[in-house]
Amino acid sequence: MSQNPDAWKDAKLRWTWEIPSAFDLHELYEVLEWNDFLRLEPEKLRLAMEGSWKVISVYADERLIATGRLVSDGVINAYLCGVGVRSELRGQGIGKEIMHRLTEEARKQGLHIQLFCSEEHRAYYGGLGFEEFAFGFKKDGRF
C-alpha cells in the first residue's frame, strides 16, 4: 500500500473488536518495525492477541492500518499495549480514538488503567489524560 497519506484520505475506516488474521497482524508489526525487536512469527503474534482482554483493529480498504489491546485480569488492572498506527496515517486521530475506545472498555469494568511507554511518547499519553505514577523496568526474558 502506498506510503502517500493522500492515498488513504478517502478510505473508509472499519473499526472492529475482532482479532486480526496472523498475516495482517504480522504485516502491520513489520511496517511499524515492532517485529525488529519481537522477532515473532505470525502465529505467535496472533496468540499474543488471543491472550488479551480486548483487542481493537482498524482497517482501511480491508488493510489493517492500526491496532491496540488491553491485557487485564478483568477485576483490578488493565494494561494498554500494542497501540500502533501506520506512519502515513498518524496525526489523524486514529491512535487517540483507539486509546479512547480501549480505556472506555476498561472504565466500564472499573479497572485501573495503566501503560508503559518510551520517553518519546510521554507527552502524547500525557495529552490524553494519563499521569506518570511509577518508574518501569524491563528485562528480556528470551535470553
From TrEMBL:
InterPro entries: Acyl_CoA_acyltransferase, GNAT_dom, NSI-like. SUPFAM superfamilies: Acyl-CoA N-acyltransferases (Nat). The lineage of its organism: Bacteria, Bacillati, Bacillota, Bacilli, Bacillales. PANTHER family: ACYL-COA N-ACYLTRANSFERASE (PTHR43626), GCN5-RELATED N-ACETYLTRANSFERASE 2, CHLOROPLASTIC (PTHR43626:SF4). Pfam families: Acetyltransf_1 (PF00583). Residues 15-143 form the N-acetyltransferase domain. It comes from Saccharibacillus endophyticus. This is N-acetyltransferase. PROSITE patterns: GNAT. Keywords: Acyltransferase, Transferase.
